[in-house]
Write a structure and sequence with these properties.
Layout (H helix, E strand, L loop, with lengths): L1 H12 L3 H14 L6 H17 L2 H18 L2 H17 L4 H5 L6
Helix pairs in contact: 1-2, 1-3, 2-3, 3-4, 3-5, 4-5
Length: 107
Amino acid sequence: LTLYNLEGLVNLHLEQTEQAWRCFDKVDQALVHAIVPHRVELTVYQAATALQIGELEQSCSLLTTAVEAAVKLGSHLRYQEASRVYDQMQERWPQEQQVRTLQELFH
């Protein structure tokens, strides 16, 4: 799983979003669907990928899930990563109400 996460991140940074999504999808299929650290990490990565693809609704949904899970786990690291994704969302979609609503998650 770590290899796919790493490969996905490399693809994400190279803006090869389709390849990144496929890598993260493989991880998604292998992980339990519960609030565990690896699931939160993956959800942050998926939100970042959806952002790069331009999927507003999907990125908002994934980011919401990631932030809520990070808070439940008490994971400051994942919360900060999600916050960085949110900052990028604000840059890309500054006028979108869905993005502005996400600000409530970061208090």
